[in-house]
Amino acid sequence: MTSSPAPIPGLTARDYKSEVKPVWCPGCGDFSVLSAITKALAELKLPPEKVSVISGIGCSSRMPAYMNSYGFHGVHGRAVALATGLKLSRPDLTVLVTGGDGDGFSIGGNHFLHACRRNVDMTYIVMDNQVYGMTKGQPSPTTEPDWDSALSPGGTGLRPFHPLVIALASGANFIARGFSGDPNGTARLIVDAIRTPGFSFVEVLSPCVTFREDQRGWKKIVRPAPVDPTEDIGRAARRLMTDDGFNLGILYTGKRKPYQLRLDAVEEEPAALETQFVV
Amino acid sequence: MTSSPAPIPGLTARDYKSEVKPVWCPGCGDFSVLSAITKALAELKLPPEKVSVISGIGCSSRMPAYMNSYGFHGVHGRAVALATGLKLSRPDLTVLVTGGDGDGFSIGGNHFLHACRRNVDMTYIVMDNQVYGMTKGQPSPTTEPDWDSALSPGGTGLRPFHPLVIALASGANFIARGFSGDPNGTARLIVDAIRTPGFSFVEVLSPCVTFREDQRGWKKIVRPAPVDPTEDIGRAARRLMTDDGFNLGILYTGKRKPYQLRLDAVEEEPAALETQFVV
Amino acid sequence: MTAKDDETPSLSIALTGSGGAGVITAGNMLLDAAAKAGCYGLFARSSGPQIRGGEAAAMVRLAKEPVAAPGDVFDILIAIDWHNIDRFAVELPLSTESLVIADPSQGEVPEVIAASGARIAELPLKDLAKTVAKGRPNMIALGVVAGLIGLPDEVADEVMARALKKRGDEALAASRDAFALGVEAAGTMSFDGPDLWTRAATRERWIINGNEAAGLGAVRGGVRFVAAYPITPATDLLEWMALNLQRLGGALVQAEDELASINMIIGASYGGTPALTATSGPGLALMSESLGLAVASEVPVVVVDVMRGGPSTGIPTKSEQSDLNIALFGLHGDAPHLVLAPTSVSDCVFTTQWAVTLAEALQSPAIVLSDQLLGQTRAIVDRPTDIAFVSQRVTADAGAGEVRRYALAGGGVSPMAIPGAPGAQYTADGLEHDERGLPSSRAGDHVTQLDKRAAKLDGFDYGNHWAEIEGDGRRAVVAWGSSTGAVREALARLGSRGHEFRLVSPRLLAPAQPARWTEALEGVERALVVELNHSAQFYRYLKGYCDPPCPVDVYHRPGPLPLRVGELVAEIEKWSRS
Amino acid sequence: MTAKDDETPSLSIALTGSGGAGVITAGNMLLDAAAKAGCYGLFARSSGPQIRGGEAAAMVRLAKEPVAAPGDVFDILIAIDWHNIDRFAVELPLSTESLVIADPSQGEVPEVIAASGARIAELPLKDLAKTVAKGRPNMIALGVVAGLIGLPDEVADEVMARALKKRGDEALAASRDAFALGVEAAGTMSFDGPDLWTRAATRERWIINGNEAAGLGAVRGGVRFVAAYPITPATDLLEWMALNLQRLGGALVQAEDELASINMIIGASYGGTPALTATSGPGLALMSESLGLAVASEVPVVVVDVMRGGPSTGIPTKSEQSDLNIALFGLHGDAPHLVLAPTSVSDCVFTTQWAVTLAEALQSPAIVLSDQLLGQTRAIVDRPTDIAFVSQRVTADAGAGEVRRYALAGGGVSPMAIPGAPGAQYTADGLEHDERGLPSSRAGDHVTQLDKRAAKLDGFDYGNHWAEIEGDGRRAVVAWGSSTGAVREALARLGSRGHEFRLVSPRLLAPAQPARWTEALEGVERALVVELNHSAQFYRYLKGYCDPPCPVDVYHRPGPLPLRVGELVAEIEKWSRS
Ligand SMILES: Cc1ncc(C[n+]2csc(CCOP(=O)(O)OP(=O)(O)O)c2C)c(N)n1
Ligand SMILES: Cc1ncc(C[n+]2csc(CCOP(=O)(O)OP(=O)(O)O)c2C)c(N)n1
Ligand code: SF4
Ligand code: SF4
Ligand SMILES: [Mg+2]
Ligand SMILES: [Mg+2]
Questions:
Q1: Which ligand is the nearest neighbour of the Cα of B30?
Q2: Number of structural domains, chain A?
């Protein structure tokens, strides 16, 4: 973790925000995540045009439009794949993926698994509110089994999906948890996530004040993880397996080499390939 | 683990085999997996018509046609979802899913994740040959990073996917590894997998003799896991994280209640629902 | 304003306000009360992209006869505030005869509204509300509307009492007082509308929306298993199913994605349980590979596509009829299947029930093309009749000798063994197969199975249900799905002006019915297709597959604005002079 | 057998045997040698469902002129064994003039073969092979064929030397000896075929299959990024790309599934790199939701669909033209895009290159409909000319003031900013949006953007590339994709009998080109569509979208058997008398 960000000359968080007014409900945690991301970018002094923010569909996935970087608001669940194509072909860009727990862990679960494994250098920020906000309140993979809703009266009865454990098990290189109520701390996590080469995963607990009123109580439960970041995957596993979901901070940071394509190979023209066909 | 199966009066493995000749290459590991499954069913004395074997696409996914049970040879990667619908609506059936590492962990990865989490009572047998056999030799998620092939010249450079770790992390209730070279041992694992309520995952190392000649050497490497089956998820995690992929046996067996639908609720007629609309 | 002589006597009322102003609540109560007072009507809502706190409009149309389309203009617009009115003013057409009621504390009447020339009446809704303990402007607005249109007091009271039961006596009293203030204020305004309250209901009436109606049709058809993934505007259909299936011994499973949901229902149906999913365009697209599996393996399933604006994520909360192409042709290979479209909110019951029955009888996937307009419009309708279809799934008897799952008998419908039946085991397969279901790449097997799967659909007798055909003119107007309502009313209006038209609205869209089409258009000189999409999808389909016996023209435009009766009257008149 | 007078002088030779017998190797060598000897030809293979060890047939056709379809009957069939011959005998038509060479040690000539009345010559291939150290029957068979057809010795030798270079001198010697034994044996048989070796090549000749050709076209068009998931019969295209892109500074990524591959290429293209994926029917179905995203967000991408037998998993190793519907209509909503079809193996170069260029210029997804027949047939062709298309992606200049990503200029093509360009930032969106790309559900924005996306495709000048039009008869035959070759040859044969026909083979299938169609069919009395699918997909499309100026009929049937020239000659003759 880097030290507290010093005041930045030049670029400020404001420079990374667009003029568009978010559609989010008043009080939605995602506002603070937007702040955290833009603060992190300001800290890193990245030129806005060299940043691309990719998302799927959901309240949280609206993020790109609120930023003054390049953005892609794609289809539900496929943002990580789209971002992979972008980053592999444009290694010079800083690529962020932003989205929700439904987008990333339900419909997008397979891409999440394979992105962790592939370890392309990007940062994936999931605003976890344990609900489908945009479609008005259905359980997501991270929802508690007994949360009542119209689609699952009485609760799903399903064990919640543990994103950090899955990220670790499938190979993510940087794993952290933030809380929207702490935009400065979250900004620091994002700075580190971007700085760490490879696939960085940041879960941000971001309350849905409309469909999960109860999450307003999160601010009382979250706490800094009582441990240092570790590089030891075994220790991280043990730690995460018993984690209650409210420990904040960097929970794992590895040293795997990011996956890159060899795009700077011999520059031949297509005509050079023709000899293989000549009779 | 149950004790060695005693000779079974009545039903024998043969009774679970169909007349159809497999398309598999001579020497393919999948022949022995067929034997192991049919032996297991004979041991359990399940009436063939009460067993359904569901698969996707791949050499290994051809399994259902070679069995004398009900079967469904669906599309690539979706077998587990299809089986989920079947088992949830027909809890009286014994449902097996059979397939390959590409089918289950590449295109089918999301259903695998969510099936482990959902914990419906079925047994998923993956014939892992660390290659796409049917499409003639491309790397799968379990392939080593340096395995050379036409589609990935010089190797993918990717960290292999660890199916057992993912199964554990996402909530499977029974996790075991078998080897096609040991059909009796594998049959025993399958018996236990079927007997254990909830989602049981059995990875069977099953060499592809055509595209992975080197896997003929597996028989010299595999060994019974030097440990007892555990119910402790933490211990299992530590064990699996350091596992080299060749330990055979039951590696985890949990006690989570399987997910079931309440289908035996009040038997009303649709007409009873109409009152809600009456002006 | 009274309707013109040739118009269905009806009243259109809009209530607008920002999120939290409660206009949707008031609109629903207005419809409920009107239903109790014996009239027909519709309630549709429009809201902004915000999940909460955005602007909203409640759009109610009340009439003596059943109506299925919005009115041409709003007779009354009552605005609690003008929040973002620019964004949806286009959805609220007004004329010089309209009455706009505005709260002067919310600023001037915006130009987009004033420009209509509507009469403006000022009413300090907010201040009035403050005069009542816990009073809210929306209840005052409801009272104003009730007063203006002459809604009998007792029904409004009954509806308020029911709606606010849970909120306690204090809330009810506040609403009653506010309502009364509104009625009183209405007394100071002049408004002259048709009397809609005289006609007593002779048949049982329901208030239902198309999503609920489709759900009811599904369970009437036998559906007891639903797997689905939420998506607007299909989610409320799913939520209705989740709650109501429980009472029937059925259940809904929330799947991880649409690839899973379609496969789950294929699995359930293969196991013998009639199964359904509902989705919208993006989800339907994800299901297309596995719909092909259902075709090839001959497993009945039903997919209700509640269409919204496309392409891609498009306009999720608004209606369009632009998924016809993907429903007809979105499967790879030659993959014949059923496509149906309900012709009205209440027909969602019939068409969905019929779709389930056909899917089961023909061992085929069926896609039902509903849309946001049908799905989310609450309508007052006569109770839909309960039809008991006779056809059902043909199952293989256990132990009746060798069972050939894909035998070429029964006009292409082969008996289907259900897991558990001894001696009838087989493997359902998406690979091409022979009659026994064994994989085959032989040309002979391929052509016989392709023929079989097409023949079973083409050869079935769909009877008169395939379309609604009304009237007898030399000119015909062809509509499908939710467009039918507006076209029907437009033709009635034109009919009362002495122009007779035939209405042809097919409920069965695929397989194509060239012979029935020709018959339906017999004696017609010229036909006009009307549909709500950009590329005239049904028109193209008709020409390509049905060899219509007369020249066919088309009037089409994309959503999100619904087709209006007046718009269609003008277009059809213009066309009929051509 | 010499060809009938009106037939293209050609020779068709089949080698069959069980897996490991090496018939595919021999067939490839035969084609290579024939090419060196200056003739044209084709090589197609057929194999059973087994991955290894199954039966196989190598089917070679050699001719003086370029040919694009299999011959009507095989002149020579040489069987190393009769393994599973029942399964694919239907792919090996014979006549009484055919010569069948059989090894008596492999049992009697099977009834399916003998019934043709072909001449049978016995040759103990297996025993002969034993007389040579490490000799193999397939090389003897190759020698027999070479001897019978008079293939110049030196070319065979050259090809053997090259093919066996890696296996060492001993292997080469064994092959040479076995080959010589075969040639010697041929001397004892009578066979009278056309002399194909006189014509020296005047232009550079290539041996290439359609998958390689599409790959080459793609890289010529500028593609430098490929993401894909393996699927038969597209995998070899991908493998060609994986290897060859490396040399051009590009790369291929194996994705976890087709949902990922289409999104990866959308991402790469959004970043400025022309990008492509290849798949077959099941994979295309999975891509359809995200193809809609590419339409709405206006990102160019190319998808090559190497079609196979459908529906569902169907017949993965055999050809069919049954994905036209899904390619045209498989996207939800109104989603105009490009669909193209190469008309021959070598045209796969041109059409794929053109598809990339059009996609880039029009900021649209393009689907290229190749098929197993084109993709996996190795053909001897004249070197495809290298075309430099002028149009390309219009990018936004950095800092040139306000950039409206979806501005309504340039006939619908708005300049596209590439990430990294300062001051031009925008968000690409699948939600309906306004000109700036901001989400909008306004009716006005929806209709303008729908109009824009349709107009940019409809208004583009596709020039003469849109179709191949040949001949000038009053009757026209319309073919598309791989059917073109067989139709062209059938029309030539009919032409030499004095019947003149026009051939119309559109390369651009969507957007529909009604005006060009009308022009192409000008003066035509009647047209016949020929295609290889069960539901006459192109025929229906033509009628629905193009208002053909003359009556149109159709001859269509499903795969897996390819259309044969003789079959078409008979059908077209019958039709032309109708
Ligand atoms: C293919 C597809 N299926 C379903 C949807 C509907 N949908 C939109 S957002 C969403 C879930 C959003 O939940 P989450 O990702 O947690 O985001 P949140 O709104 O909670 O921030 C769903 C199901 C869709 N747009 N596309
Ligand atoms: C949607 C889709 N994509 C791709 C394919 C092609 N395909 C068939 S089997 C297969 C992979 C098989 O690998 P695996 O599951 O490991 O099975 P194996 O053959 O090795 O037993 C692929 C990619 C397909 N049938 N469908
Ligand atoms: S619904 Fe929930 S997640 Fe969506 S904007 Fe509102 S508070 Fe945020
Ligand atoms: S290719 Fe490999 S996996 Fe497939 S049948 Fe042959 S040996 Fe088995
Ligand atoms: Mg969420
Ligand atoms: Mg495999």
A1: 4
A2: 1
